[in-house]
Amino acid sequence: MMTETAIPTKTNEYEIVAIMDKLPPERKAHVLSFARFLAYETTQTAEYTFSEEDTALKDEYTASDAHWDELLTSEGGQFALDKLADEALAEIRAGKATPIVFTENGELSPE
């Protein structure tokens, strides 16, 4: 299991920027989308206090969520999901899959 090490915030920011600089544009968009998801997910905790910026983030995420819903329910989206499922089953049958478990804090981790 991977452990996280506390690193000063600025160091993390510089590392993220350095990684982003090396990525092609479509991958940068994926990272941005994931970062927005993490930011939105953070605002959903019971002890979090909402700001005006958070409300805008929630609205933006909801619009992005609607886009993904539309994409994944389309015929092409269903085809892609079926293909991914077939690939996953093939890897499981070939013994290439790694078992995963939930950690105490609800995250996924290799067994």
Sketch the major β-sheet: 2 strands, antiparallel
Listing every helix as H and every strand as E from the N terminus to the C terminus, the arrangement reads HHHHEE
Got a strand count? Answer: 2
Strand content range: 5-15%
Distance between the termini: 8 Å
Helix/strand class? mainly alpha
Low-confidence stretches: none
Q: Order of strands across the biggest sheet?
A: 1-2
The radius of gyration over CA amounts to 18 Å
Topology of helices and strands:
Layout: H1 9-22, H2 25-43, H3 52-73, H4 75-93, E1 100-102, E2 108-110
Give a written overview of the molecule:
- This protein is mainly alpha-helical and 111 residues long.
- Helices cover 67% and strands 5% of the residues.
- The protein contains four helices and two strands; from the N terminus they run ααααββ.
- Strand 1 (100-102) and strand 2 form a beta hairpin.
- Helix 2 (25-43) crosses helix 3 (52-73).
- The relative contact order is 0.07.
- The model has no long low-confidence stretch (mean pLDDT 78).
Label this structure with key terms:
4 helices, 111 residues, 2 domains, extended, two-stranded antiparallel sheet
Describe the structure concisely for a colleague:
By secondary structure, the chain is mainly alpha-helical.
